[in-house]
Amino acid sequence: MRRRYIVVDERDNVATAIVDLSMGEHVETLRGRIVLLGEIRYGHKFALEDIPLGGYIVKYGEQIGRATASITRGDHVHVHNVEDIVDEVRKR
Amino acid sequence: MTGKATFMGYRRHDGGAGVRNYVAVVPTVLCSCSVARGIAEATRANVFTHDGGCGQLGPDRDHTLRVLEGVAAHPNVGALLAVGLGCEQIDAGKLVEAAGGKPARSISIHELGGNTSTVKRGTEIVKQLRREAAKARRVPIAAEELTVATQCGSSDTGSGLASNPATGAMADLLAEQGGAVILGETGSLYGAAGLMARRVAAKEIGDRIIEMTDVLEGYYMRMGNSLREANPTPGNIAGGLTTLVEKSLGGVRKGGTTPIRGVLEAGERIRGKGLWVMNTSMGLGACATADMLASGAQVMVYTTGMGNPVGSPLGPVVKVTATKGTAESLADIIDFDASPVLLGDESVQDCGRRLLDEVLEVASGRQVSSERTGHNVFAIGKMVV
User: Fold this and answer.
1) Residues of A within an 8 Å Cβ radius of B
2) Which backbone phi and psi does B22 adopt, to 5 degrees?
3) pLDDT, tens digit, for every residue of B244-273?
4) Is the Cβ–Cβ distance between B66 and B294 less than 8 Å?
5) For position A25, which CATH number holds?
6) Structural domains counted in chain A
């Protein structure tokens, strides 16, 4: 079966869908089976693990944002629950 | 790849290695662009029209001269005609000097008595230059003499996830061979400046990367906007990109993972091997393309998700996409399909190897799509101060 999502780096806590995925769909990952808690369209991300409020979103093996809500494994991860950390990481 | 890779290129008078043997018609100023275009159309030479060359202040004036001298000196240019007006800031004679011993001439519209006579005289000269340039023959040249510029445009999901990483793998392989790579587009570095600053060969290089992104943010703020407010764009967000940091990290992957050797100013001549960051000028993609190629890079690898259509008159631009639909629907734009990486059928490393092979083939003379269809643009951007 064709790959349905991509995890760029093994440190990542999110995966990116490369086909449209439906709410309730099961995806098999290296971290076990995940039930998607929302619709994850092509190019959008879902959580591979629980991320607490204030925790970092990791993609490309790097921090890309901070959770503005408690994120559950399988949740859609996007602007509604993530804030940019550009000021924090830009000069570090 | 095992052992030392080579390509078939042109050895220039000054020792440079070209991958094309262009006859370049270079207007010194916007005012002579129409005559230059007339000459180029009559001779099928490559023309470098731009909107500078006079009435420009400090950094912009210096930048225009630097880019045009870079065109004149470029190893892909086998012969040059500089077309001046006669009263402009940029001296056509300076471009002939920068040509470094290759066949080069300059003409002036004022001296030759107007537009029609200058097109006629320029056309005769270019025909003669073409005969002189045609004496050059391709010879085997080591890949370590290759500089590849990297850029992205009309990006989509596949860019950050597949085509940029594959381009980065190609960049690492070329650096391993002793070649050089340029990563430009200061705006796209912005959110990854901290990460880039940790990957440098010396601390002051990192400080310079941070500083140049600060200057860019200052420029945006004076225009009444923050770079951060404009990014990610609504289109990016609809496509699934969440933060500017995420966008930048996807962009900088096309430079690969080797230490950054230094920062070049826009259009500045490349100063060594390995990975270099260029503080490219402000403008559309063609401006950064001109800056990076004018540095002496002979080939550009340009990743594009939705399909950017234009090449450059200064060097072949290899268009790479990881979006299968784009590769299929825009077949006369796309040169290289990296979609197997996105689909999980090819590793990033294998795709990088395949891409370096493609770059070496193109360097040896295989035409890219924009060369076959004849769609090039050239533009000189504005300096950010």
Assistant:
1) 2-3, 6, 8, 16-18, 41-45, 57, 59-60, 62-65, 77-79, 82-86, 89-92
2) -70, 150
3) 999 999 999 999 999 999 999 999 999 999
4) yes
5) 2.30.130.110
6) 1
